[in-house]
Design brief:
Mean pLDDT: 84
Distance between the termini: 87 Å
Number of helices: 5
Shape: elongated
Low-confidence stretches: 5-22
Number of strands: 12
Helix content: 25-40%
């Protein structure tokens, strides 16, 4: 290859890379070992917004900080995140059950609902959202507390049950409501009638 041909090849290659620059990327390293390659757009108190490198003009994605170990930015800077579960455990260390419950169930906090089936969860979600005291979340990892509705069917179409307030960090039951049943309820759907009775008669008065 002559010097002139070699020079043309080098210049041509340089121009190609000039027109197709290598895009700098951020790497989100998750606590489960997975890596997300993309561009970090925003970090707030609880989430990180980013775009995927495979689709830079596509939608924004959101990941909870509790799922992130650290982020390595395009300039090789590293931002580490203390696990949010550990932060909450530190916060509640040495407190009594009632003190933890009071903090976890403050007005505007996030609640994750558990029950035997999807319909029960939906009934509870509708009842709590109608009240509007807490924010119902579908993500257990971001919930401030868990509210579980337990029930059993009795005879003659009657249903018995109670609600349990649970610490999501360790599964400890912080409070159990009094057991109620669907007697005197005008709702033909006994599960819905029971859950609404628990919300209206046992839960709401406790937080007034």
């Amino acid at each position: 290859m002559t010097k002139i041909v070699l020079l043309k090849w080098v210049l041509g290659t340089t121009l190609i890379f000039a027109f197709f620059p290598v895009k700098a990327q951020d790497t989100i390293n998750k606590t489960n070992g997975e890596k997300i390659i993309g561009k970090v757009l925003l970090i707030d108190n609880s989430t990180v917004r980013y775009k995927k490198s495979s689709n830079p003009d596509g939608p924004e994605y959101v990941i909870h900080i509790s799922e992130i170990s650290y982020i390595r930015y395009q300039n090789n800077e590293i931002e580490a995140f203390k696990n949010q579960r550990a932060v909450k455990e530190d916060k509640y260390q040495g407190l009594r059950k009632d003190e933890i419950l009071n903090d976890m169930t403050k007005k505007g906090n996030k609640v994750y609902i558990e029950s035997k089936d999807e319909n029960s969860v939906l009934h509870a979600k509708n009842g709590l959202e109608k009240w509007g005291y807490w924010v119902v979340t579908n993500k257990k990892e971001e919930a401030d507390f868990i509210l579980r509705f337990d029930y059993v069917f009795g005879g003659l179409g009657d249903t018995f049950g109670r609600a349990l307030f649970i610490n999501p960090q360790n599964g400890e039951v912080l409070l159990k409501t009094k057991e109620v049943n669907t007697m005197m309820s005008m709702d033909m759907n006994t599960k819905r009638g029971l859950i609404n009775k628990l919300i209206n008669n046992e839960i709401r008065p406790f937080f007034k």
